[in-house]
Amino acid sequence: MALGRDRRQERREERHGGGAVKYRMRQKLVSIGDDYWIEDEAGQRVFKVDGKALRIRDTLILEDAGGRKVAKIQEKMLRIKDAMAIEDGDGNRIAMVKKALITPLRDRWHVEVENGSDLDVKGNILDHEYEFEDDGHRVASVSKKWFRVADTYGVEIEPGTDPVVVLAATVALDMMVHEDR
């Protein structure tokens, strides 16, 4: 049985270029005021999502395992379309997650990255089956298929892609499509 699993893993790495890092997230990620850990494949706590309560705007803080603030995710008010800003630990904007104006058949979102390539997000955001693309090349995937645990999904990030930007954007997308939280 283990041999079959090893072969499946090898085929997956061949398809995806190997070296990708997979994170485990909860489908009902977080409500404002709640805290949640993002784990790696081995179950190690890597980032904590801290839901800041009693704010006028939705605000979440992403901390590393040592408690250092690496990103702040905050809803932007008074905008025509949905948007959430992502700032680094020093308060500098690192990305802006925006819903595309035209969404013909499926959800389309855009992540404007301040010091890097912008990312297009395509797929079914609501059901956690989507990809982040940089100029048509997949740099991260989000899927519920990797984990058998209910209400859990994975984020697989390719080497060379900033995990903080992708994970923070994933949290922002989750907040934006599940506005009832």
UniProtKB/TrEMBL annotation:
Coiled coil: none annotated. SUPFAM superfamilies: Tubby C-terminal domain-like (SSF54518). InterPro entries: LOR, LOR_sf, Tubby-like_C. It comes from the Bacteria. Pfam families: LOR (PF04525). Belongs to the LOR family. This is LURP-one-related/scramblase family protein.
